[in-house]
Amino acid sequence: MKRLLLMLLASSAHAQTADPPEAPRSRDDRPSAPFPPLPPSLPREPDETPPGGLTYVGLFLMRATATDVTQTAPVLKGQVTGRMFGANGTTTGDDAVTFLEQRYLGFFDYRPTLLEGRAALQAAFEVDFTFGDASNTVQANSGGALNGDSVNLQTKRLSAEVDLGAGLTLVVGLQPLADNPRNPARALPDELVHAGTRLAFWGSDAAGVSLYGRWHRRLLGRLAYFNLYENDVNEADDVHLAMLDGEFGVAPGLNVGGHLWYLRDGARGLGTALGVGPGSKLAALNGAAPLALGPDRAEAHLVWAGVDAHYNLGLAEGPFAASAFFMSNFGSFDVFEADDRAPTAPPFDTTDGELLGFMADLELAFRWGRTNGDTIEVEGLYASGDDAPDDRTVSSPITGNNYGLPGAVHASHRSLLLFPDLRVVNRQVGVVYDPANLGHGVIAGFLDAAWDVVPHRLNLKLGTAIAGAAAPPPGAARHIGTELNAELMYRPYPFLWFGLHGAVVRLGEFLEGGRVDLERIPAERPWTTYASLTWVHF
Amino acid sequence: MRRLLFVALTLGCVRGRLEDQPPMTFEDLAPSPVSKARVGDLDIAYVDVGSGPLVVLIHGLGEHLGYWDENLPGLVEGGARVIALDLPGFGRSSKPADGYGIAWQAAAVRGLLDAVAPGEAAVLVGHSMGGQIAARFALTWPDRTRALVLVAPAGVERFGPGEAAWLKNVSTPQAFSERDEGELRAHYRRNVFHVWGPAAERHLAERVRLRGAPGFDAYIHAVVRMIHAMVDEPVADELHRVSAPVTALFGERDGLIPNTLVHGGAPADVAAQARRLMPAARVDLLPDVGHMVQIEAPERTNRAILDAVRAAPAEAVSP
Fold it and tell me: Domain count of chain A?
């Protein structure tokens, strides 16, 4: 106020003492002057362009890896994903193995101008190439060498997005599937990784219909239906997922969300070569929640209900950020006799299985320096389990890893081996691939400290992760493993990074008492190092 | 940590949303009242305070003359006549559909001076984009330039043709007009201000509450056109030709200079570049100061301006 008064006084003083301007006065007595002739300048294009057009974004990832983690199941060729030391045949060897692999993702978004940008066709395609091996189980050119080209194009997205007005957007077709009320095709990575249930339950792509809503800039909603598996087109034996999600901004930077999902699994553990669902071999491969049925099969009714909250996403409001979710999971299984898997067969009433599990996660971040690359992040994860998962009850949470390979990509942990790394192409393994951890659940902690050595150009991260079983088998130890990791990322150009990454895991005794193949438990500590090139272009 | 988190969450809960506050118009901006001069077909808003050697304050992209509120009293007390203006397209000045450009804005400043201080040479002070405009003014009309003070200036950092094309491509009206409070707050806190105080909150509130105001679309149009102009009309390679004494101030914690997306690196790199481009200039890097140097370090900024006023030759230096 004092400053304002001074300024007004000074203004008044100037008005009294300044010489009258010599410039010609306009009719309203304002001082005036002609616009001076311009010095030469470059011509400029007008910025008004009609809404719409074709937008393209590409993601290129290449990595050269040296690791002692090997896989012993030749049938899998280059496609090695899932739980380490499990059904995928991974173990460690005395000698390092090396491999080179690359991935390219192209995203197209076409909005005809005729529709004033109100509808878009979205498509995304993925090209994977693992040198010397098959890619995405395409076998024809395995062997690599000079003629190692592969037919390896995958369709990741093919959908229509239509603006319905009133804050509603409809997305129809093959589209990203995430556990978040935001449209994954439009959301920022931070919004998917640190909001909702953080891709820990669903993170893949699926065919379906999604209706996204956004009202008053603080209320988000989603109502969606996905067909996760089309088993036999003539039978009602598919896997359907319905999702209702919402998020409300209660204050600037502070949002709370709720989630309610229902899954009807009529596949009876069949479907792919590994099957789908808790009673399938896929669950064992991924270490997801198992339903031990022996030769029998099951249909499932699964329900998820949970809440999440996040504060200061992207460290926008200040140096502290927090994100948390709690998701409970319940439901029932109708078990069918092994020798009668026909869709019309009645279930065994006396042997129906039950599900009651939950997962909770809390992440805190502190920006200690200049940029968001100068951060310390700590995360805690708990997934329920029981000490005897080999029965017809499920005490650990069901995730997309029960239905896909992978179907969930818990992404915020930044571990490389103890939990699955995300900077991968065809080889992604983790000691704990799914938080259900074979039904024993998990207690895990992650600590990462990062430093932008050169702001926005050179970043060093040191991290550690530790995991134990929430409910180890009787007499078994809880400790699954402890990881130390480091990453150095250098960005010489916009959106192009070179990286050096490394991790080593000290395995715990849980594996020796858990349901793993003891012959694959290594004497040596698993380790991995790789160099990467990541390039986003548009 | 738990206590800090609690405090952070509590503060987050009790602070109201700016979007819930009544919308404002450009005419509601402070300080008020302002004078207006007619330059060609444009009305240019300005304040003209104090008496003494003339200092002209030119704001940055998206800003207005209120971004000098922390400086005006000190400069007047220091014995200067200060004119702060709203560049065309911003604040309470006209927002034409055509025009825009670094040279065009420099001409608008010249026109204002012709109207309110005819024939007088000035110490030109430009913040960010205003620095690039001030430099162009000094290069074009050295006879009207006694000294140049560049405050976190644009125009020192170079952009290659590809980088410039990309920046122009992503700088669309939609990209700016649709930013909500959360996005704007993130931008202001992360990139614009290092020291967050009442002035920062005030300017954020202005930007949020102006959304939808009469003239807002024209303002966004001006923002976009001036971004294009900043890369289309570089001055870096001409700075050595500025005949007036030059002072340049950089914030050591600037989140906009250098451009974090395109170049990365530290503001010290750009300050070093300024020293190379203008070997005779006085270049200071201020610790714990962000992009809003004049707001976050007003006394330091005023001292630099008044030093330039005192040191400047009485008449403009001929090239």
Answer: 1
pLDDT classification of A50: cutoffs 50, 70, 90: low
User: Which residues of chain B lie closer than 8 angstroms to A26, CB-CB?
Assistant: 38
Instruction: Identify the band that residue B313 occupies on the pLDDT scale cut at 50, 70 and 90.
Output: confident
Name A242's Cβ contacts closer than 8 Å, sequence gap at least 6: A224, A225, A226, A261, A262, A263
CATH code of residue A218: 2.40.160.100
- Is residue A415 within 8 Å of residue A503, measured between CB atoms? yes
- Residue A305 within a domain: yes
B127-162 residue pLDDT tens = 999 999 999 999 999 999 999 999 999 999 999 888
Residue A366 lies in domain: 52-537
| B contacts of A41 (beta carbons < 8 Å) | 101-104, 232-233
- In CATH, which superfamily holds the domain spanning B23-311? Alpha/Beta hydrolase fold, catalytic domain (3.40.50.1820)
Read off the pLDDT of residues B223-281 as tens digits, 9 standing for 90 and up.
999 999 999 999 999 999 999 999 999 999 999 999 988 888 999 999 999 999 999 99
CB pair distance less than 8 Å for A10 and B49:
yes
Name which residue leads in pLDDT, A479 or A16.
A479
Q: Look over chain B and give the mean of its residue pLDDT values, rounded to a whole number.
A: 91
ipTM above 0.85, yes or no: no
Element (H, E) at A309: strand A297-311
- Inside any domain, residue A520: yes
Pairwise CA distance, residues B46 & B38, whole Å: 11
The answer to the question of residue A25 being in a domain is: no
For residue A42, give the nearest of B49, B163, B232 by CB distance. B232
Contacts of A10 in chain B (CB under 8 A): 49-50, 72-73, 76
- pTM of the full structure: 0.83
Between residues B295 and A276, the one the model is more confident about: B295
Best B76, B98, B157, B193 member to test A by mutation, with max A CBs in 10 Å, is B76
Q: Tally the C-alpha atoms within 13 A of residue A497's C-alpha that lie toward its C-beta.
A: 23
| Cβ–Cβ below 8 Å for B12 and A11 | no
Percent of chain A with pLDDT over 90: 49
Is-contact A409 A193, C-beta < 8 A? no
Residue of B nearest to A309 (CA): B9
In the structure, what pLDDT confidence band is assigned to residue A5 with cuts at 50, 70 and 90?
very low
Compute the mean pLDDT over every residue in chain A, rounded to the nearest whole number.
84
Interface test with A, best of B2, B3, B9 (most A CBs within 10 A): B9
Asked whether residue A7 is domain-assigned, the answer is no
Rounded percentage of chain B residues whose pLDDT exceeds 70: 94
- Parallel, antiparallel, or unpaired for β A203-215 and A168-178? antiparallel
Q: Are A447 and A413 spatial neighbours (Cβ–Cβ below 8 Å)?
A: no
Nearest to A443 by CA among A394, A387, A381: A381
Question: Residue A44 and residue B180: Cβ atoms within 8 Å?
Answer: no
